[in-house]
Each structure stands twice: as structure tokens, then as C-alpha cells.
Amino acid sequence: MVVPYMSGVAGPHECDKDGIKKIGGKMDTDPGILCFQHCGPVNIFCFELPIHCPVCGAPLATVNFRLLPFRVPYPFVRAAQHPCSIVIKPTAGDFLNDYFNSKDLHIGVTDSKGMVVEFDRGGLQWTDAQLWKQCLVLDGAAGPWSDHWDGTLSLVAQQDCWTSDGYNEADFNCYTFVLSFLRSLRYGRLSEAADNRTEFCEKFIIPRTTAAGKYISLFRKLRQSQSKCYVYKMQQSTLGAGSPVAITAR
């Protein structure tokens, strides 16, 4: 969903050195990236609207926008707000600042109350979901399934194999636990894909991380730009469809 930008709705805010917004003294992991078009088929991204258009230099307070500013949808969520779901996050750090394709991901399950159940070197743990404040939801179950979800999660968790001694980073890890839970759950395509580690990754993990990677790349380019604006130029191809021809930071 595209959220229109309305100046002043969130109230005064400031960003830390990583571009993460602080509202009312609390940390909000959504940096609030805005997008607009002014003088042509050029997408301009920014954290805050500039005084002048970074392409033509015209003052934005007195001009018409080709595309009104809107807030770019933020792909990450707090696990506590998504009960009965499968969630992933970087093993170390967070997505916006620390994640690269070569880095490991950690996967867990939320129960109906939003607590995260995860398996790692310390064994099986029920974790405060506040530690999962910037994660991706792979999929989940509808409300009527919550009792079955919790019951299955409890039964799988009681198995004596989920110990710190049994943990092996290569072949008996967090992924093993989640797939075992999903197979026992017998919940549609989630459980069907869980029969094969590669298939589950291709159907649920890669699509989410690929989409999130575009947002991460945009955020980092904006953070590195001196003017805090990022210009994405488009050009009509011979077929009439818009295709990217240049990406420049200004």
C-alpha cells in the first residue's frame, strides 16, 4: 500500500546517524523514505522534502508536482505485531544497517501472543519479541488457526532434540526447527513447502528478501548522499515502456 505523505502528521522528529527516525523520544525503525516527481519522469527519493528540486532547481513550495510526494512502503515489521507467523531477521545486527546477501539469516516462529520461539546455540528459547523489531514475515495462519498453531508449537517444542548440545550450525539449526514445526502443523502451502528446504527457501524466503533488498539499497544510497536526495531517472524505451537508464545520487 502506498501511503500519501502529509507534512507534520508525525510531529517533529529527528534522525540519528543511521537515518533511523526518533519520534517523541522513542526509536522508530522506519526511516520514512519519501518519493515524488517534479519536472519529468524522474523519481526523487528523500527523507524530507528539499526546498528546491534537485533536478531543475525550482523551489518546491510554489510549483506543481508531476507525482505528489508519498511514503515508500516499509517492508519490515515488529514480530510482536504478527502472531502465528514465521519471521526472519539477520543473525547479527539489523536489515537496514548490517544485512548483505552473504550474511546469515535467523528464522523463528511467533505464537498467538506474539512471543518468538527460536532455536539457536542456546537451545530452544521463548524470546521477547522486542528483540525482533525489524524483521520480515514470511507467512502465517489466520485467526481461527491460533489454537492449533499454539498446540502444535508446544508439542514440537517438547521434543527433546532441541537442545544446545544438539544444535549444529550447518544441518540442525533454526531452519530445522521451523520446518519441523510447519510439517507438523499441516497448514496448506506453508507445510507442503516445508518438506523440502530448498523449495521453502525459493517460495518464501527469497521473494521477501529480494523485495526488502531494494528498500535497503535505496536507504543506504540516501544515507550516503550529501544532499539526502536520490534521483532515479527513467527513459522511454523503443517499446514505449519505462526502463531505468541511470541512477545518480545528488
From TrEMBL:
InterPro entries: MKRN2OS-like, MKRN2OS-like_C, MKRN2OS-like_N. It holds the Pfam family DUF4796_C. Residues 69-222 form the MKRN2 opposite strand protein-like C-terminal domain. Residues 31-60 form the MKRN2 opposite strand protein-like N-terminal domain. It comes from the Eukaryota. This is MKRN2 opposite strand protein. It comes from Frankliniella fusca. The lineage of its organism: Eukaryota, Metazoa, Ecdysozoa, Arthropoda, Hexapoda.
